[in-house]
Task: inverse folding
């Protein structure tokens, strides 16, 4: 069973995004772990933005 590279990227984005949201929901605001959650969501958003930009160019 072959998994496309794009599918792996989307799975990683999903994991990062949900992990970030869970971290934010279950920690106090402005604690270190809360910022880690924000960073995870930021990274996943950045990957989404990059993939959209690359699709527009091609």
Result:
């Amino acid at each position: 069973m072959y998994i496309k590279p794009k599918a792996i990227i989307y799975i990683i984005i999903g994991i990062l995004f949900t992990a970030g949201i869970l971290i934010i929901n279950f920690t106090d605001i402005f604690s270190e772990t809360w910022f880690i959650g924000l960073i995870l969501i930021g990274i996943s958003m950045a990957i989404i933005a990059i993939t959209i930009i690359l699709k527009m160019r091609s």
